[in-house]
């Protein structure tokens, strides 16, 4: 059973702080990792993707991947109330001839003004 | 440019009726995916189309669910003899390539309510 685990939260941080969202996955063979943001009642929106160990930065967002420990994280610097949403971690597992994208259940983030 | 388009945005129907949900992917995207998201839950993979290959139906929950993709573009998800547990948001996504290193772009979803 391929699994992607996230703390459901809610994670509450004050405006301007760093929000740290974590995700663990069960299959060492996974190679592609995605973070999606989903506002209440809306569809998921891609925020970041990362394939290699280490950090990948894009504006206020940094994705961190550690394949040895099988976790991927998302850091949001200078958090804003508009960042309040559910963040979904997704991992591609390869089996047979094609892959499958497995989503975690998401972490709800609340940024307090 | 246009994103993934889904219709209808909302659908309310009686238990036992059939429903059809439509997805129009981003132009040029060869891969198309259907997911289901129940209230407060994560995304549940349903079916995946890649080009002209046979679809991966491994996520379909029962034989009441089927999907087709005509001409490698528009897709229709059909649910026959709907049940109350089918109530959910049905999301469609497309990507440039198949499951791999290509991010998926989602439509706004169809909110399906079975009375």
Give a concise summary.
The complex is a heterodimer of chains A (113) and B (115). With 113 residues, chain A is an all-beta fold.
Give an overview in words.
The complex is a heterodimer of chains A (113) and B (115). Chain A contains no helices and eleven strands. Chain A is an all-beta fold and 113 residues long. In chain A, strands 2, 4, 5, 9, 10 and 11 form a six-stranded mixed sheet that branches. In chain A, a hairpin with a 2-residue loop joins strand 9 (85-95) and strand 10. The model of chain A has no long low-confidence stretch (mean pLDDT 91). Chain B has 115 residues and is an all-beta fold. Chain B contains no helices and ten strands. Helices cover 0% and strands 46% of the residues of chain B. In chain B, a hairpin with a 5-residue loop joins strand 4 (31-37) and strand 5 (43-50). In chain B, strands 2, 4, 5, 8, 9 and 10 form a six-stranded mixed sheet that branches. Chain B has strands at 5-7, 10-13, 19-24, 31-37, 43-50, 65-69, 75-79, 88-95, 105-106, 110-114. Chain A binds chain B through residues 31-32, 34, 42-46, 49, 51, 88, 90, 92, 94, 98-106, and chain B through 33, 35, 41-43, 45, 48, 50, 56, 58, 91, 98-101, 103-109.
């Amino acid at each position: 059973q391929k699994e992607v685990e996230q703390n459901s939260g809610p994670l509450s941080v004050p405006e301007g702080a760093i929000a740290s969202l974590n995700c663990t996955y069960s299959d060492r063979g996974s190679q592609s990792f995605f973070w999606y943001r989903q506002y209440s009642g809306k569809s998921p929106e891609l925020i970041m993707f990362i394939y290699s160990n280490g950090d990948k930065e894009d504006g206020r967002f940094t994705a961190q991947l550690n394949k040895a420990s099988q976790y991927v994280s998302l850091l949001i610097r200078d958090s804003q109330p508009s960042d309040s949403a559910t963040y979904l971690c997704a991992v591609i597992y390869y089996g047979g001839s094609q892959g499958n994208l497995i989503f975690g259940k998401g972490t709800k983030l609340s940024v307090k003004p | 440019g246009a994103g993934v388009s889904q219709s209808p945005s909302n659908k309310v129907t009686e238990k036992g009726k059939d429903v059809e949900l439509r997805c129009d992917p981003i132009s040029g995207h060869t891969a198309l995916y259907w997911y289901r998201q129940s209230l407060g839950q994560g995304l549940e993979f349903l079916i995946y189309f890649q080009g002209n290959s046979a679809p991966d139906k491994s996520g379909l929950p029962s034989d009441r669910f089927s999907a087709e993709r005509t001409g490698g573009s528009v897709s229709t998800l059909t649910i026959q003899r709907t049940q109350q547990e089918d109530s959910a948001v049905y999301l469609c996504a497309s990507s440039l390539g198949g499951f791999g290193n290509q991010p998926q772009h989602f439509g706004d979803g169809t909110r399906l309510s079975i009375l």
